[in-house]
Amino acid sequence: MDRTLPAATGFLAAVHQDGGRAPAPVFASLGSCVLEREERHGHTLHTGLLHTGAPEAARAYGPRCAVVFAGELYNQAELRSLLPPGAGPDGDAQLVRALFDIYDLHAFRLLNGRFAALVQGEGRVLLATDHAGSVPVYLTAAPGRVLAATEAKALRTAPTGRPLPAARPVRRLPGVHQVPAGTVLEVALGTGSCTAHRTWAPPLSRRILPEDEAVAAVRRALEHAVHVRMGPEVPLVVLSGGIDSSSVAALAANRAAGPLDTVSMGTDEADEFPQARVVAAHLGTAHRELTIPTDDLLRRLPHTVWAAESLDPDIIEYLLPLTALYLRLGGTGRRILTGYGADIPLGGMHREDRLPALDTALAHDMETFDGLNEMSPVLSGIGGHWSTHPYWDREVLDVLVPLEAGLKRRYGQDKWVLRAAMGDVLPQETVLRPKLGVHEGSGTTSSFSRLLTAAGVPEGRVHHAKRLVVQELFDQVVVAGRHPDEVATEEVVQLAAGQLESRTQPIS
User: Fold this and answer.
1) When you count CB atoms within 10 A of the terminal residue's CB, does the N or C end of the chain come out lower?
2) Residue span of the signal peptide, if any (predicted)?
3) Active site (annotated) includes residue 374
4) Has 411 been annotated as catalytic?
5) Does pTM top 0.90 for this prediction?
């Protein structure tokens, strides 16, 4: 039976040589959790699986390996074509196990999806995330044991592991590391030593294409990415009325069995409702508008850090309105498509006319996105929903990133190739509308800044103060394990303002 949500959206797993225990599963994402213990190859595999009703589809066992899988694959048909005739695995975990039997860890180079996975083989444990690291996975390893989870907070009470140079250490969680995007980490159980195997990297070369070929390639890739993310029921699309989200909505509406559901979010300070209404009316969607008071929005800062487990204040600022939206949606778990992330491979956020500078910025953004966790499904998971982002489909990135910069900034327009690709299905005013980020359209940036200046932070030090706020929130809701409902944004802002002032006081 086709399911609206993936079989599992997260996991905590532990492999022990001595039959040791795993920490109690702690997740920000909502869902049922089932615990299982399995003896394999002389080791004990403990799993705590955050599932949506069918946990058996997120685990697979075979003679060579066991697989624990959270998320979903988007190229199942192509992957099944690699298996012997008649070998049709039921779910994604079973498919990965069958491919692993043939390709070993190289199987992960074949996968296009939004996932995190653990594979236990004889004497080794492999941890993998998708090409974009869009489902983060963390680990701690030592001789005789490996623990892994899709949320760092789940490992806060785990035994301290050894340093792992191949992975990224997590702030103030000794021995906890994050698996890099597009990477399989292979851990030797006997020693705890770790080897990284890259499975994807952003293209560095640039392609020169005629306009019509580039436009057709972008349309084809994005259409397919939206189609494979639709699910068996009509999805919900987050719609701002900009070109990114409107393109996803238009392509989803073309595929939906009935009227597409769309939703827009604003605050009492700012919104993009008129622009979104134009698109919703054009596509005939069932459209909702949610207005979140600015004070309520800012109170969701702890929840945003709790979900994203990111330390970057700019990213948290981008994600805050989305987190507030997901928490406000209510209802049963929805499959949500977004236009998030298009600006990164298309350079849309830079508003740069000079092509060398645009391509430099784009290359930098594609090199440094890893670890920001801005695509994490936990952001929607704390509301019980599953979000997915077509612009960060592997095949879409393989088309968008290498296009030469002149196709991205052309005729005075940012993201020209996308606008040209979608011109036949969207209103002209939407196609021509200049870029505006969700954090700008909702007034998030200005309201967060105003909260800090009201606490006495000088305007020139607001960004640094935002970083201190995010760090303090991370330390409270991730490292210390506090629930964000217990953390007051205003108190953390006052604490950060005090830290900033003490650092600038002259020494007498």
Assistant:
1) C
2) none
3) yes
4) no
5) yes
